[in-house]
Amino acid sequence: MSPAEPFPKARHFRNRLWLAATIMLLLLLAVLLRLLYLEVWHYGRFRRLAHDNHVALAPVAPARGLIVADHGEVLAENRPTYAVELVPDEIPDISETLTRLQELLQLSPEDLARFARRRAGKPDFDPVLLKTGLDPRQIALLAVRSEDFPGVRVVAVLHRYYPYGALFSHVVGYVGPITAADLEHFHARSYLGRNYIGKAGLERQYERQLRGEIGYEIKEVDARGMQVGTLHEQAPISGDKLITHLRLRVQEAAAQALESHQYRGAVVALNPNDGAVLAMVTSPSFNANWFVDGISAAHWQSLLANPGRPLVNRADDGLYPPGSCAKPFFSIEAVQQGVIAPDYHTFCPGNFQLGGHTYWDWNRGGFGETGLTKALAWSVDVFYYKLAVKMGIRMQDQTLWRFGFGSRPGVDLPGASRGFVPTPAWKRAHLHAPWYTGDSVILGIGQGYLLVTPLQLARAVAAIANGGWLVQPQVGKALVSPHGGRPIPLPQPPARNLHIAPAALHAVRLGMEACVQSGTCRSVQIPGITIAGKTGTAQVPMGQKDGRTIYNNDSLFIGWAPVHHPKIAVAVVVENGGHNAWQALPVARVVIQSYLAPSTATTASAVRANLQLVKAAARGYSSGLSKGEKGAVDPRPALGSSQEYKQ
C-alpha cells in the first residue's frame, strides 16, 4: 500500500460524516418545525381538540308552557316519558346503527322516516329524537348494550299531550317534530335540543312565549363518549303559561250539539263587549295527539279520506254564503244612510219582478204589508230584494266592509280567512261580465258571490249587540311567567266605533228580538233569558242533474243574549242541512244556555231536548213554499189574519 492511500479514505469518511450530520440537522429542524406548528402556530386549535376529547356541551330543552282555559282546565300539558335519541356526530356509521336499532326496538318504517325528517336541517351535534314512549324492556335492552351503540342514549323527555283530544284541536292547535321548513321562520339556534315546535292554532301563534329558553350542560365524558360527570350546568327556563278566554263547558256543549247528529259545521261564541273568544268549534275534528310525534300514515290517510274534511278550521277559515244573516247589516246601513226610514213599509206579494225575471220569496204566498221589524222577524225576501235595488252595489259593499267582512278579523290565530266581498271591478276582471242589478238583488239576501266565515258573523253581530263597536276577537287572555307572579294580560286591540245611528240600531234590534219572540228563531227561546237573533238559509250548489244545478241548504244562526246587557254573541253554521235547514237553532240554543244557565245545558239529555223542541217547530215548514231562501218557518199558522208585525 502506498503512503498516499489513507488520504482518499479519510476524505470519504469525512464526506459520509457531513452527510450524516446534515441529515440529522434536517431531522432535528423538522421536529422543531412540527413543535412550532403544534405548540405555537395552532396551539389554540389543538388545545380545543384535546379539551373536547373529554368535555361535551349538551343543550337542555325547557318545559313547554301550559295552555289553560279561563277557569284553569289544562288544554295542553307535558307528560314525562322515556325516549331514545341519537347524536349523529358521535356515531361512526349512522345507517348501520339505525339498522341494528330497528331490529332491537322493532322500529317501523314510519319511525325511521320521522327520524330522517327530524334530522334534516339540524347540525350533527344536536341530538335527534328517534322514538318516544319506550317501555321498560326497551330501556333495559339499550342499557345492557350501551357500549355497542355510541351516540345512542335513553333520555327522559316531556311529551306534549292534549287531554281533550279533538275538542280544542282547531283552536289550541298542536305541536310536531321540527323540520327544516319550520326553521325558516325561527332561529335554528333557539331549537337546539328541542323536539317539538308549534304547528297550528295557539301553539303556533304563541310559539315564542310557550317554548321557553334552552339551557346547557358541560359534561365530562370518557373515550367512549359516556358521561362520567358534570362540570357545569345552566338550567333551562320554562315557557310561559298561556291563559285563554275559552270556556270548557261552552266548547263541550257546542261540540256535542254538532257531533251528536254528525253535523258538519262550526260554532263561534264571543263576549260581545271585548271580543273574548268563549268557544270555537269545528265539526268534524281530529285528535291533536296524533300529530305530536309526527302523524302515522294510517291516521293521515283516514283524515284525507274523511268526506267531512276534519283538517279544515271551519270556524275561522270556512267560507259560506251568509244567507239571510246578512239582512240585519243591510238594514242598519239603509236606515243610517236614509235609504229607508225605520217605519218604512212595502207590500210583499210573494215575488219580485225585475227585468223580466221573477225573484221568489221563500213564502210564495207572500207576507202582505211588511215593515222592517216584520221583515227581520220573518226573513221576508221581497223586502230585501227591493231594498237591494234602492241601496245599489256600492252601498252594499260599504256595508259589508264596515262590519268587517272581506278583511281578516284580527284574531290571534294563524290563517284566519278574509272571506270575499264581490265588487263590479272583480266581476269584470274575473268573469268578464258587468255587474247587473240582479246581482245586487241576490246579494241583498246574502247569496251570490258573497262568502263569509262564522268568526266574521259572530264579530259582526257582536257590534249590533254592544251598541256599534266592532271588536277584535282574541283567544289568549294572559301569560304567566315560569317564575311565578300575577298573570300579565295580553294587549287587547281597541274596538272600532262604527258610529251607528241610534235609530238604525234600535230598529234592527227590535226586529231581531221579534225574530226570537215569535219569528223564524222562536225555537231558540230559553225561559228567563232574552235573546235576539236571525236565521239564515243559504243555497249551496251540490252538482248537476239532468242539466240543472242541484242545491242544498246551509243552516245559519246569529244572535246574542241577554238582549239589553249582552254577555254572549253566537254564530252557528250547519252545512247541508237539507231542504228545511233548521239545524243551527238547537245548536245555538244549547250554546247560549251552557253559558248563561249552565246547570241545565250541557247534559246529553238537554241536547236531545233542544233538538226535539226545534224539530217540533220545524213541522210548520212548507216544502212547497221554499224558493230562494229556504228553510224558514212557514208564518201563516202563527200569523193568521193578524197584522201585529206590520210595525
UniProtKB/TrEMBL annotation:
Domain Penicillin-binding protein dimerisation intervals: 60-230
Main localization of the protein described in the UniProt heading: membrane
Membrane topology field: Single-pass membrane protein
InterPro entries named among the record's database cross-references: Beta-lactam/transpept (IPR050515), Beta-lactam/transpept-like (IPR012338), PBP_dimer (IPR005311), PBP_dimer_sf (IPR036138), PCN-bd_Tpept (IPR001460), Penicillin-binding_protein_2 (IPR017790)
Organism superkingdom: Bacteria
Molecular function GO labels: penicillin binding; peptidoglycan L,D-transpeptidase activity; serine-type D-Ala-D-Ala carboxypeptidase activity
Cellular localization per UniProt: Cell membrane; Membrane
Transmembrane segments: 17-38
Record key words, sorted: Carboxypeptidase, Cell inner membrane, Cell membrane, Cell shape, Cell wall biogenesis/degradation, Hydrolase, Membrane, Peptidoglycan synthesis, Protease, Transmembrane, Transmembrane helix
Any one GO BP annotation for this protein: proteolysis
Coiled coil: none
Protein name: Penicillin-binding protein 2
